Amino acid sequence: MKQQTRxxxxxxxxxxxxxLASCSGGADGSASNQTTKAEPDKQQSKELKPVxxxxxxxxxxxxxGLYVAKEQxxxxxxxxxxxxxxxxxxxxEAMVASGEAxxxxxxxxxxxxxxxxxxPLVSIAAIIQHNTSGFAAPKDRNIKSPKDFEGKSxxxxxxxxxxxxxxxxxxxxxxxxxxVKFLNIGDADYFTAVKRDIDFAWIFxxxxxxxxxxxxxxxxxxxxxxxxxxxxxxxxxxxxxxxxISQDPELVKAFMRATSKGYQYAIEHPEEAANIxxxxxxxxxxxxxxxxxxxxxxxxxxxxxxxxxQKREVWQNYSDWMHERGLLDxxxxxxxxxxxxxxxxx
Length: 346
Hints:
Pfam families: NMT1 (PF09084)
CATH class of the largest domain: Alpha Beta
Number of helices: 16
Signal peptide: 1-27
Order of helices and strands: HHHEHHEHEHEEEHEHEHEEHHHHHH
Radius of gyration: 26 Å
CATH topology of the largest domain: D-Maltodextrin-Binding Protein, domain 2
Helix content: 40-55%
Number of domains: 3
Strand order of the largest sheet: 2-1-3-10-4
Domain SsuA/THI5-like: 60-273
Protein name: ABC transporter substrate-binding protein
Strand content: 5-15%
Distance between the termini: 37 Å
CATH superfamily of the largest domain: Periplasmic binding protein-like II
Shape: globular
Organism: Paenibacillus puldeungensis
Oligomer: single chain
Largest sheet: 5 strands, mixed
């Protein structure tokens, strides 16, 4: 607008009245000013590229960085209009692999299994640097080690990986996984299940463990990573597909620049980030979200050089472990399963 005014001033220098009218914000000047400001905003909104990212589960603090990147305008700064969606019946992996969504949230286990079955998923960031999941039991069940699983009832979701992990850590203590009673409880509420049907289950401490603290129902938590380096895998991760990488690498770079900013904000401002998640998903429990975020934020990056960074040995170790236990039909081509190439430099 200032450049337009200077040009107008040069043209009508002989007519002071018109100059004053233009600069004073009169009727004609005001209309011109509004048009000049509105048009770029309108044009900018038209230029934003619609992009879908699909979650692996209902929204929780694993996903906070995505909601921060949207709310704080980091995606818009990259020219992206990002929508965050819940997974369909086939899961986030199927939606990303098919191209229905270019980005999604998954776990290393699912990416590994998908890759060995010819599904072209690629992990482009580790949301959390170390595995925060493990087997949890109410204190009164007296489960202090994997050997204490014997004679107890375990509630799971029916995956072969569950029994393989449990056997792996029980074997270290000479315990027998066949002495564990396995029950498929699906997505039943943990706190209801341990009062009624089971003694322990596999949880993510950042959510269910923190909820137990808030309820005043303390747990014995056995993190699987504490029993084997091979079980310290990435869960969750952000994924895309090979086609998106090959056809639109700039989109992947832009998405990851904004997402990285979102998680960095959550690392540095956990309470504010929690409130952003709550604003987007108001049905979540505020106390749980805030407490969970404070616990999880420092674990996003942890000891990595930057948020999202993935190590080859983590992918190799876990895929070797899965293959050794018959969970994979063939070894993983590790170098095609993940990449750090789209993470912004520090």
